[in-house]
Amino acid sequence: MKEGSREIHIVRAEKGEGSAITEFVKSVKATMGDESDWLFLNNSEDEMRRIDNGTDIAYRAVCADTGDTAGVLIVEIPSRFGGENLGTYIGLSEEELKKVAHMDTAAVAPAYRGLKLQRRLMERAEEELYAEGFRYFMCTVHPENIYSRGNITGLGYRPVWKGEKYGGTLREVMLKERA
User: Fold this and answer.
1) In the sheet that 69-76 helps form, which strands lie side by side, from edge to edge?
2) Which is it for the CA torsion 131, 147, 88, 77, positive or negative?
3) What does the pLDDT read at residue 168?
């Protein structure tokens, strides 16, 4: 897809790219100032290992002209590593919890904001994960993050819970179900 003069491709990250993905997220978070609590990254070492071994999946938005990473999305599959499953917020059975994927961490470099890259990353992830049998796509968002929330609700996600998570930060748990 071309955005202005920039062509952006969405690619699934390879195993072994965990360090680059988590460092990208940290660098974006460092640019966010007072809004840095809008972006939460689980333990970056654990996340890096889960991406590298394929337990979690990452996607990158790549600028075709430069090869620069413009944005990333980390997708957690809680049934693969035994972490918290957001499906418990909607009372899913043990069997259905295996069909939950978390659109966990999305980050876009400042120079590429406004291009709906978070949305495009999530669309690509959903498409691939749906083909693999996942039916519940969930995420959390800071209620004041109108940009991410707009991308998420624009994809058909709806809020199912609101409260403190991640050490006391306000979040909404969002859900999109596909039959």
Assistant:
1) 2-3, 6-12, 57-63, 69-76, 100-108, 136-141, 169-177, 158-165
2) positive
3) 85
